[in-house]
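User: I'm writing a tutorial on reading structure tokens. Could you give me a worked example: one chain, its sequence, then its tokens, then a sentence or two explaining what the tokens reveal?
Assistant: Sure. Here is the example chain.
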Amino acid sequence: MSHEVVVTGLGLITPAGGDLDTNWKTLAVGRSLAAKNPELAGLPVDISCDVPDFEPELELGPRLTRRLDRFAHLGLIAARQAVEDAGLNIPACRPERVGVVLGVGSNSLRTYVAEFTRLGQGRPTAVSPLALPRSVPNMLAGEIALDTGARGPNFTVSSACASGSTALGVARGMLIGGMCDVVLAGGSESWSPMTAACFAQMRALSTRVDRPALASRPFDRERDGFVLGEGAAVLVLERLDHAQARGSRSRALLCGYGASADAHHPTAPHPEGTGAEQAVRQALTDAGCAPGDIGHVNAHGTATRLGDAAEALMLRRVFDGAPPPVTATKSIIGHALGASGAIEAALTVLALERQEVPPTANLTEQDTEHELDVVTGRPRPLTFDLALSTSFGFGGQNAALVFGTA
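And here are its predicted structure tokens:
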């Protein structure tokens, strides 16, 4: 049994587009997609990055659309894309050996708020019978199984903004351990006004509401927080021998995974990035590579004061003062919270395939203490075989993934 894990399919929906090519072309432009959002009118921060022209009924039909929260619409469609991209016929495989692992963060706050409002108004009989199926975190993974016929292990992981990366790492372990032949893994997230209000009160969001397109500024000296985003990414992961047996092409290797806890603060990262460093070094060890073998980093890069500083310090230590070219795609598509790690993993795979790195938006004056080689302006052509994707979340939860060329 092979212990190599390959990516055979990608599904991706973000504010940059509803398919792989559109996402890449939009990211290559290097401009933020943040804009005023009428749904957030009256809140301290009323800007966000949103999936454009998203009409789930066209893909899912009215009945399934009604049954699911928006985050599940995004995730289910991304899963369908990934299965199609992989050329995977799950019923024709051994469906009991096809698993689903999804990462979610705040997931269905839209449903919670709507139904709690009805209950708070003294109208308990107005609460929808779909309220629980729409809102419990595991239901997206369950719906993907219903939709695809995957009957293997099926569950959800939640490690805040590291959730999507954690899901991919857990899926890798299931494949190497022989529990599954195939795992559909990734993350999905959609914000709600409650999400925006909470993060605004925590002062985690950029307050450049008069200049939305300039709000998200990872690693910039004037950074002041992130912009909310939404989206989903699902990757079809397989053991190499299984992919070869069914004649599938491999888009990339998932070579390594590392995870850790800061054990430092409920929301702030460790100022030295020690937990993040532990996760990254674990991922490198798992991949059997040295720091110098990594040719590109898709950074967590949220544009918060503390987060970017800690990540930059960590990267400089790991890479002995000279990290490889870095990009922070949240500057363009916003921060999709629990889905962000999966989205950035998918973008890392695309960067490896295309041998170029998409730019970071809004970096005009890099913080002098960062000293990173951040790609800006336009995509940068590179020749590289291995790339690192990092994700860090509230609770001090850290995850890192190493991808390689197929």
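What the tokens reveal: Residues 70-86 form the longest helix (17 residues). The CA atoms of residues 262 and 275 lie 5 Å apart.
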